[in-house]
Task: structure prediction
Amino acid sequence: MNNPLSPISLQQDFPFLKSGVHFLDNASTSQRPQVVIDAITDYYTNYNANVHRGIYSWSEQASEAYEATREAVREFIGASSVEEIIFTSGTTHSLNLAARLLGQDLEKDDEIIVSTIEHHSNLVPWQLVAKDRQAKLVFLDTNEDEKIDPQTLRSLITKKTKILSITHTSNVTGYTLPVREVSDIAHEFNIIVVVDAAQGAPHQPINVQDLGADMLAFSGHKLCGPTGVGVLYGQRDLLNRLEPVYGGGSMIDKVTLERSTWAALPAKHEPGTPNIAGVIGLGTAIKYLQNIGLDAIHARVDELYNELWQGIQSAEGVTSFGPKDRAARTSIVSFTVAGVHAHDVASILDESQVAVRAGHHCAQPLLQKWGVPSTTRASLYFYNTSEDITALLNGIKKAQQLLT
Amino acid sequence: MDIYQEEILDHYRHPRNSGSVENPDIIQTERNSSCGDELIFSFKLADGKVAEVMFTGEGCAISQAAASMLTEDITGQAITKAKQLTPDDVIDLLGIELGPTRLKCALLPVQAITKALADK
Result:
């Protein structure tokens, strides 16, 4: 029997990896296995019809596949009902939707807490909604060890604090935050907790009850699903109470020229023709991951991360950023190479078929704090191998030889 | 084609016109939002010409070499000519082919120079 975590057999599931690429940009987007590509092609080829509309059999087949994914997502994140699963175009859309929905409850001078290490997509939507509602953003900063201390949150909470929105795992450092501890504190004060799980969901079992998330967002494309599809989980009472922020088809009950009433959840917050192929692909991706096992994926990535971490720490002239506590992090490392700009590191790595990200990783405030304009980021997924890490470390040496 | 040609590496390691001119007539800052790089150009103008131009700021080998080469190129040039710099000019100076992402690095100094001189 094949070991499901043998990197050789796993790599064979991913057509793009056959090109010989050392793909270390997984925090940006993962690869798609053949089964996901096939599921999308199957929909477009064999039962391409709109969902929730036609009486004819192909539309019913499409609706069944679409709704089966909703159930798969419900189970994947431990939601209590499919009514709590809203399909979106991705984490960015999900977090903007969360901000617009929860913004309805905000009054002038109310406060929203976000951390200082958020991706722009869990910062800018809150800036927009704060401006709109004349609310205030309050920042939960890291300690000297670059980790979040839940007790710091306690000191920031006032009677005006209404929302806490926080990332599960940093997209720059792979640091996993103490989400449960902060959500417990927030809930003592009836603060609504939103969790950005874009980087967390691909790497470990996520359970919204265990995390204490009232809302939670993630993308399909970072966990082997297609681009253009994501999820917003929302606690049922919350989604029931809040007015929809987008109107259109599917989300209505009765429409007159003057006013409308809303469909039941989840349709109420999911207007228009959705990304049907994307949702079906997401369902297949989730099944693919579950077949390997999220715990096994986490263990495999963590084992590879040891190699990556040690390689980066011991490389001369290379500085890594973020918490020094290896155990608090996984999958991602951001670093600078003395005398070599991140773009040059990435270009020279590209010549060795190593794909990494170079830039600010959509987290400019964090890089400003570190005092660097850009870093190079390497990020792993379960199909990576030790050879990928060796190619990275050799490429860094090559960059140093050429440019310093 | 390898983009790290000897001439580019030479300009990167030893940038020409690095620094700021004294009593500048124009200071122009240009940022590349994809990498956070920032170049600051300062100009001294005289008799309708770019009398002096220098630059500071962080950047990759491509943007630094492009800035260095361009400052050499436009020093002493008529403002009317220098402000019409195009992407092709910097590609010619660098003598390499660039993909769309790295092209942005090369264009950063072009944008700074053309913006600085636009109203002059």
Remarks:
- The helical segments of chain B are 6-13, 61-74, 79-82, 87-94, 100-117.
- The radius of gyration of chain B is 13 Å.
- DSSP finds five helices and three strands in chain B.
- The interface with chain A takes residues 2-4, 9, 12, 34-38, 58-62, 102, 105 of chain B (CB under 8 Å).
